Amino acid sequence: MLVLGDAHAAEDPDNDDALLAAYDDADADVALQLGDLQRYDLPAPTWFVGGNNEDFDVIDALRAGDSPEQVSNAHLLAGTAAEVEGLRVAGLSGNYAPTQYDKPRSELSGERRRHFVREDVEAVAALEDVDVLMTHEAPEGLVYYGYDAGCEHVTRLVEELDPDLCLVGHHETHREATVHGVRAVSLAPVWQCYYRLDPETLELTVRETPNGDD
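^ thats the sequence. predicted structure below, dont judge the formating
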């Protein structure tokens, strides 16, 4: 199974090339992606969480169960779960903004649609038997910039759902930690590397993206 960090595919043609190169090199049947995707016509079925840099009209359509014409093989996980190669994969889309968190999602507009709100977190918390939790925002105890960059609401989901693995985007750096007994991994961006996940063992291996930057 292919696993991909942030892509930012619409912002730079080189990023888009790197995204497609990762799919081609991995030759995987399915993929997981951790947000800031920006390209929604993909070479293989891909389950992703929305990031804070997306086409939010597309994301809203996918949240509503619609399928815009520019979408192919892209499946949004936003407070939902899916069975992917025998794994139950759950996803929380968006990043955290304290000023928006307690608003109904219906009140978010424009770029504010990039955030998750309380109702999104509660939807994920209600899921059961989660093997892999995907989030764009990190839990506490994983990514540091002289301070803990994690979010308490994501930490809560890790603790309550107790998945076997938590995969994180957004920070565009590879970090690993154990958070409430759960292995958590922050992924490097696609233009640097891609990952392969063994669905049976949950072993995660890293491979350099062809023509990617170091």
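The mean pLDDT is 97.
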